[in-house]
Amino acid sequence: MQNSEAMALSAALLAVAGELTQRIHDGVVARGFEGVRPAHGFAFARLAPDGATVTDLAVHLGVTKQAASQLVDEIVRKGYAERRPHPEDARARLIVLTERGWDCTRAAEAAAADAVRTWADVLGEGEVRALLGQLGRIAPYGPIRPAW
After folding, report:
1. Which long-range contacts (CB under 8 A, 24 or more apart) does 79-84 make?
2. pLDDT tens track for 48-57
3. Mean pLDDT score, 55-69
4. Residue 85, SS3?
5. How far apart are CA 127 and CA 31, in angstroms?
6. Taking a C-beta distance cutoff of 8 angstroms, is the pair 65, 58 a contact?
7. Whole-angstrom distance between the N-terminal and C-terminal Cα of the chain?
């Protein structure tokens, strides 16, 4: 593959990722969840299913503990998460999704499904499944981090 083709592929993948993030966000807002940002969704992914500490969240998001703490303050204030005593570490607090946070997460899943269905309208369901398999073979293992 030539450099220009590699750049075109890189640009296309980044454009699809950006559009997908925006469509999920728009779908979440359309389902009645105000005051959320795409970064919240990346945090919710780490908090589900069993919660996480601020340190865990910072590692997942690739940010400082201070930045993760500010994000936690925001989602707690908005009612999407709550702090609980950590069951194994008395010094730590466990951040868990509230019912509102779970509802928002389910709204994001529905919005993602809507977005992917439009791909199937263009490519066909078989091609979308093949794309999932191909991307799964090359995608790095680990957390999906927001582009700050």
Report:
1. 80/36, 80/40, 80/44, 80/104, 81/47, 84/51
2. 888 999 999 9
3. 93
4. strand
5. 29
6. yes
7. 30
Tokens describing residue 20:
């997908």
When pLDDT is cut at 50, 70 and 90, the band that residue 89 belongs to is confident
From CA 28, how far away is CA 106, in angstroms rounded? 9
% of the chain surpassing 70 pLDDT: 95
Query: What is the residue whose two structure tokens read 């990722």?
Result: 17
Return d(Cα 143, Cα 71) in angstroms, integer: 17
- As a whole number of angstroms, the distance between CA 22 and CA 38 comes to 8
The structure tokens listed for 132 are 């999932």
The whole-model pTM stands at: 0.85
At a CB cut-off of 8 Å and minimum separation 6, what does 90 contact? none
